Amino acid sequence: MRILLADPSRIGLKLMTKMLVDGGHEVLPFTDGTAALECLRGDETIDVLLTSFEVPGISGLELCWEARLIANSRHPIYVVAMSSSHDRDRLIEALDSGADDFITKPPVATELFARLRAAERMTRAQRELVRLATIDPLTDLPNRRAFFDRAGEACLRSGSAAPLSVVMFDIDHFKRVNDTWGHDAGDLVLKAVADVVRRRTGSPARLGGEEFAILLDGWDLLDAYHEAERLRVDIQSTPIEIPGGVLEVTVSLGVAEHLGGHTVDQLMKNADVALYAAKTSGRNRVVAAQSTIAGASDSIETSEARTIYLAC
Asked: Which one of 62, 128, 210, 301 is the catalytic residue?
């Protein structure tokens, strides 16, 4: 497992790091709580936080609390607090601060490894629960919930120096596919489209039914439009084998760029309006929402007033 180890003693840190590495684990050692927290927030591959109480910068208890917040909102982290004190009050304080387990220092190798094996079982189960809650089982893409969580975080980070765009699209005449060839064929179409999307850039998701979205972090409106057009061509040129024949499908796409201060719901509404315009103007095309018209209100009232038809 990948373990973040925080301890104020350089000698103790070196000894525990060697013990853990010899046991087959990867260790990120820190003597400073502030640096440890920065790593914890930025590295989603960390499985375990193993921290002493007595860490400078940010205390071990604060690290436990912050790790619990990250684990509750982003990815599972098993938190183990360490102390040379056997005080029961400290144990209670650690557990109340978000720790999953408590061990005394210096740790006995056999006991520590047994606790880490328990941690591995727990984090594996938690990851599977997260996967079931956030992954669409048919296409294996992130689902609507996962997409909105990721897009919401991206909107909070987005600024003038870091543009953010979203592409929303659905499969043209998908009901006709189901009605004519059956739902099994429809599922094959959804999987094939998902495979094409997965090969392209960005963070894709299946929002539901035949509707998909791609988050393009760092892309402005024009670049996102061109990427959407490339995706449209890729899907149209991909033959999809179904029982009894081969299908070719097209998609309609709406593109919108995030504006400072706008929520993820506003961003998605803009993209949805652009998608509707693409469908009502003939399908199999890309329409980009113009969100920067001088004097425009925050909401898009009509697609005609707020949409740039960049392609027909």
From this structure: 210
